[in-house]
Amino acid sequence: MTSVPEAHTSINQGKQRFGVAFRLAIGYVVAIWSVFFLDTATGGWMKFYGIHPLDITSLTGIVTSPLLHANLTHIMGNTMPGVVFVFLIGLSGRRVFWEVTSITAVIGGMGTWLLGGIGTNHIGASGLIYGWFSYLVIRGIANRNFMQILLGIILATAYSYYIWGVIPGTPGISWQGHLFGGIGGALAGWFITSDDTKPKAQLQA
Questions:
Q1: CB-based contacts of 25: which residues, under 8 Å, 6+ apart?
Q2: Which residues are CB-contacts of 151 (< 8 A; sequence separation ≥ 6)?
């Protein structure tokens, strides 16, 4: 039986997790839309700061490219999935979110920089979105957590069409960003430990 103080603590922790997740999701929307409006208002020059494959000077694009979008259709397509995935990951805490996002950004960005094709410019949050998605699908298996596995199955079913985004051939689509972002998210799901739902055993001296 759960005592009243324990139930109170559980409710408060749930509220805190929800608050963190909500703020992260809102922060994502504010970040990409603020940059979009600023870029649009200043003539679109900020799009230059995407990832230009094999160009050393564009390595900073690994950080800046997810904030940049080509047009209204592009950013709208990345808004809702991003909000959903950021919120779901954010329920595990800020540390988990930033670990997953960092791993996804670095692996997705470097993969795109290496294999994205000389003379191209890769922008958009979709690489992160693919990483967040693959993390959410994988993490339940890595954590042996039934509820997370169930969530992963639901998401994999609902967003099964994402598989087309990693297949080469569609003009204007950065399949490299999608593919390597997804790989980054999957690796985060397997290897980070801050999202482990099982309590760690205490060492006894």
A1: 83, 86, 87, 90
A2: 88, 136, 140
